[in-house]
Amino acid sequence: MESREEISYVSQQEAIEIDHMLMGPLGFTVDQLMELAGLSVASAIGEVYSSSEYTRVLVISGPGNNGGDGLVAARHLHHFGYKPSICYPKRSNKPLFAGLVTQLESLSVPFLPVEDLSVQLSSNFEIIVDAIFGFSFHGNPRSPFDSLIRRLVSIRNQQHTHEKAAVIISIDIPSGWHVEAGDVCGESIEPDMLVSLTAPKLCAKMFRGPHHLLGGRFVPPSIIEKFKLKLPSYPGTSMCVRIGNLPETNLPAQKGIFAASVSLEVEEDPIDQFQKWFGDALGAGIKEPHYMVLSTAGKDAKPSSRMISLEGINKYGFVWHTNYGSRKAREISENHHASLLFYWGPLKCQVRVEGFVEQVSDEESDQYFSNLPRDTQIRPIVSKQSTRIHGREGLYQQYKELEEKYHDRTLIPRPKQWGGYRLIPDFFEFWQGEESQVHLKLRYYVEEIDGRRVWRIHRLVPKLAESASSL
Ligand SMILES: Cc1cc2nc3c(=O)[nH]c(=O)nc-3n(C[C@H](O)[C@H](O)[C@H](O)COP(=O)(O)O)c2cc1C
Where does (6S)-NADPHX bind (predicted)? Predict the structure, then answer.
């Protein structure tokens, strides 16, 4: 697996030029490239999601070549043992696309009109392939793709709260993202898997899902040389190769082995207990276990909650980063007490943490900021959290201006309105539910003894629960 830093990311213009070279002097046809793209996508899906567990696949195809890649992928997926269905609302009448439709129809792959898709896509499909827009798309998505994209966004939100949600796989570009700047509004699809084609586009640097793969094992040396591309080598005879790892975090490394449940051993220090359960969550394959609910309340005592990404944990507490002009920041400045909540559904686990919040030092925020990729550094400068925004184009314009301003790789200063907070815990509750209704409940309270923080453990295990509500 190659690290992100060692791989080239190409701009929209470079991607267009690469295509022109491939289909010009290098003798490829669009049919061939589409076939290779679709095969790479189907292979990537096969590598990560087994057909026995993730059988039903919905491919949403857009009107252009990205849609064609999706149609080819669907044909291969059928032959790999999946059950694909297609939603292809704006069909191209070019012979290439008509041929792909005929091929799928001959395999009895169903084509579903948008109106026939159930509201809850996750109840009918385990995988949704986003083959709506590719790297040449610009502007705002039109009907019916705008509402289809919104449905994919809502699945993503559902994943944070619900155990059973379809996984989303985007082909080359998550639809709705800008090909270079990514999800500038912070409101678009967040796929579980991105399959970049030929070379990852700049927006892929902002991909934070667990599976980033590259397909397109055919790039001739003249293209590599001309565009100075650094691409990973493909293993064996594979049509795809993995790029990058789980979301960047300084939390425990991903474990290869899948754990069936959390460890029931009790640590004296709740931070150690948390680290152990967090490791178990990663080991169980839970996606993004570092997302947590942060609840705050200002001087009016009205609570507010939102999802936040945990960026660091050590013996002093839990750190996240945000905009210091946001609502949560205002509430924290008025009342330093807050709570965090982690929920790891497949393990039936919940961890509650309460404590006192402090702003981390400027040096600590600077250090964290300086280690972020440059395009990720520009986003918080553009972002005005908890304030009204005036359209995607305006934000993108501002993003481009900043990109231009810092194109010579001068140091990007951390925006003053952005930085870290740390919650210093004084209470933990570790809860694990069991089918048998015997629940583990472990509480830690802090006590000050001779100026030292000492943890007291209340172990309420095993306890026969009278009813779920009594917990
Ligand atoms: C999964 C997920 C992770 C998020 N992570 C962060 C984060 O790390 N920092 C942040 O400021 N906002 C994050 N957000 C956005 C927040 O939930 C929230 O919308 C934003 O911070 C504004 O909140 P406020 O107006 O209550 O301050 C995340 C949202 C989601 C859905």
Answer: 65-69, 134-140, 172
3-state DSSP call for residue 306? strand
Q: Is the CB of 159 under 6 A from ligand 1?
A: no
Mean per-residue pLDDT of the chain: 86
Is residue 250 predicted with pLDDT exceeding 50? no
Chain segment 78-118, per-residue pLDDT in tens:
999 999 999 999 999 999 999 999 999 999 999 999 998 87
Residue 322 Cβ inside 6 Å of ligand 1? The answer reads yes
Instruction: Answer yes or no: is pLDDT of 348 > 70.
Output: yes
- Annotated ligand binding at 68? The verdict is yes
Position 263 scores a pLDDT of: 67
Asked whether residue 69 is marked as a ligand-binding residue, the answer is yes
The answer to whether 136 is annotated as binding is yes
Is the model's pLDDT at 47 over the cut of 50?
yes
The Cα–Cα gap between 54 and 127 comes to 6
**Cβ partners under 8 Å of residue 86, min gap 6:** 58, 59, 61, 70, 71, 74, 104, 109, 110, 111, 112
Ligand 1 probe mutation, 322, 357, 376, most atoms within 8 A of CB: 322
More confident: 441 or 247: 441
- Tell me the torsion sign for CA atoms 286, 289, 291, 295: positive
pLDDT at 470: 31
Single-letter amino acid code for the residue at 426: D
Most confident among 52-61, 238-247, 262-271, 456-465 (mean pLDDT): 52-61
Q: What is the pLDDT averaged over residues 204-233?
A: 92
Question: Would you say residue 259 has pLDDT above 60?
Answer: no
User: CB under 8 Å to 65, separation ≥6 — which residues?
Assistant: 30, 34, 134, 136
What is the distance of C-alpha 206 from the center of its chain?
Answer: 9
More confident residue, 132 or 379: 132
* 238 CB within 6 A, ligand 1: no
Q: What is the DSSP letter of 6?
A: G
List the structure tokens of 450. Answer: 């001779």
Query: Could you tell which of 308, 326, 331, 342 is best to mutate to test the pocket of ligand 1, judged by most ligand atoms within 8 Å of the CB?
Result: 308
Edge-first strand listing for the sheet containing 167-171: 83-87, 56-61, 127-131, 167-171, 193-197, 211-215, 240-243
Ligand 1 pocket residue status of 28, Cβ below 6 Å: no
Query: Which atom of ligand 1 is nearest the CA belonging to 386?
Result: 25
Burial label, 204 (beta-carbon count in 10 A; 0-12, 13-18, 19+): buried
Question: Does the annotation flag 245 for ligand binding?
Answer: no
Nearest ligand 1 atom, CA 310: 8
Query: Between helices 65-79 and 95-106, what is the axis angle to 10°?
Result: 20
